[in-house]
Design goal:
With 390 residues, the protein is of the alpha/beta class. Helices cover 41% and strands 24% of the residues. It is built from twelve helices and 15 strands. The radius of gyration is 21 Å and the shape is globular. It starts with a helix and ends with a helix.
Length: 390
């Protein structure tokens, strides 16, 4: 085992030395490690939809250098992702990385640090991820941002007793922790926290257990791509008619799944940083362009991690004059501000976290289709996990 680690380190170091001149060449390689197959393939499709649309709209040349995307499918398996990332750094000699879900981002962090590769977190919503490498910068979100806001909203709107149903992985744990802290501090009671297996979940028995506890509200976190299954079983168990309010972060009424969820979702309130119905001219153009480029697929919040991730990379390269030194790129990214289809966003220079609006949204029918209609805005929300540490 020791010799394997030594050989791996030697290979990585040799690759880094060999890749030194890459920044002086005419092509900048961006290695993307995303979940393109397996249980979370819907996430990969949305991310790449955003990435490809940005390049289509802004060209494949920045600071006089051609942008080349090298995509690797991690199949949502961390060990696979780590191996692929090392191949990208050593063999493909990529200059920049873009990574996806939380377990993958965690696995790749040591490689990004050792190779000093600027890396954009495009999917993960777990706060601690950016602490794992000084070369990590996030363009997605943190679940704490949304969970904090929905907890405050629930308390102000009369909720007193909640049952939590969460997917049993790091993002679910974080969503639950932040919600619980804010909700109980405000006088609310958590009756029970129920953990659901991430792989091949059957929500029905857990939903029945939640109903039997007698809450006035059900706080739910399931990852994008599982919201449709959850909604179907929510209705099958009769919770839509039970008087229990369904609340949570935006994942549970994901725009990718919402059109097929059915009218039982009408009135469900969530806190999210993006909705396909966000009423800005920029977003209307974004939705139209995304649908046209992706066979009518409606963009969801995940897609913005890819779209804005490419914007961050492009603008950082402009600032560095096309130089791909990791520290220089990360420094260029810190403090950057721009207008996104989701609204105004920025990168916190101290934490490398995204700062963005969080919206309270209510599921309504618009022109015959279900959408998350924004009914309140909380401006420039920072990651509460990082704020608490301060």
């Amino acid at each position: 085992m020791g010799s394997k680690h030594i050989l791996a380190g030697v290979a990585l170091a040799a690759g880094l030395l060999a890749g030194g001149p890459a920044s002086a060449q005419d092509t900048i390689k961006i290695g993307l490690v995303q979940s393109m197959s397996g249980p979370l393939s819907a996430i990969g499709r949305q991310i790449m939809g955003g990435v490809n649309l940005y390049i289509q709209q802004h060209g494949n040349t920045v600071a006089g250098k051609k942008i080349e995307i090298v995509l690797k499918d991690d199949t949502a398996v961390p060990d696979m992702a780590k191996r692929l990332a090392q191949e990208l750094i050593v063999n493909e000699k990529v200059n920049i990385l873009g990574v996806g879900i939380t377990p993958v981002a965690m696995a790749i962090a040591p490689l990004a640090t050792e190779s000093k590769t600027a890396t954009v977190i495009m999917v993960s919503g777990t706060s601690v991820v950016t602490d794992r490498s000084p070369f990590y910068v996030r363009t997605s979100f943190t679940l704490g941002q949304q969970s904090q806001i929905i907890a405050e909203w629930a308390l102000k709107n009369g909720s007193k007793k909640v049952v939590i149903v969460q997917s049993d992985w790091a993002p679910g744990a974080e969503a639950t922790a932040v919600f619980t802290t804010v909700y109980t501090k405000g006088g609310g009671q958590i009756l029970e926290t129920i953990k659901v297996p991430l792989a091949n979940p059957d929500f029905a028995p857990f939903l029945q257990r939640a109903r039997d506890a007698g809450p006035d509200s059900l706080f739910v976190f399931v990852p994008a791509g599982q919201a449709g299954t959850f909604a179907r079983q929510f209705v099958e168990r009769g919770l839509d008619k039970s008087g229990i309010k369904l609340i949570g972060p935006g994942d549970i009424t994901d725009d990718n799944d919402l059109p097929g969820m059915g009218d039982a979702m009408l009135g469900v309130v969530t806190a999210g940083f993006y909705s396909a119905s966000h009423p800005s001219a920029m977003n209307k153009a974004y939705v139209a362009a995304f649908k046209k480029a992706n066979n009518g697929l409606r963009p969801n919040f995940i897609s913005l991690g890819g779209y804005d991730g490419m914007h961050l990379i492009y603008e950082a390269l402009k600032k560095t004059g096309g130089k791909t030194d990791g520290e220089a790129l990360v420094n260029a990214m810190k403090g950057m501000k721009w207008e996104s289809p989701r609204g105004p966003i920025s990168i916190d220079p101290e934490t490398r976290e995204i700062v963005q609006n969080v919206y309270i949204r209510k599921v309504e029918k618009v022109d015959g289709e279900l959408y998350n209609t924004e009914i309140a805005t909380f401006a420039a929300v920072k990651d509460p996990g990082k704020t608490a540490k301060k």
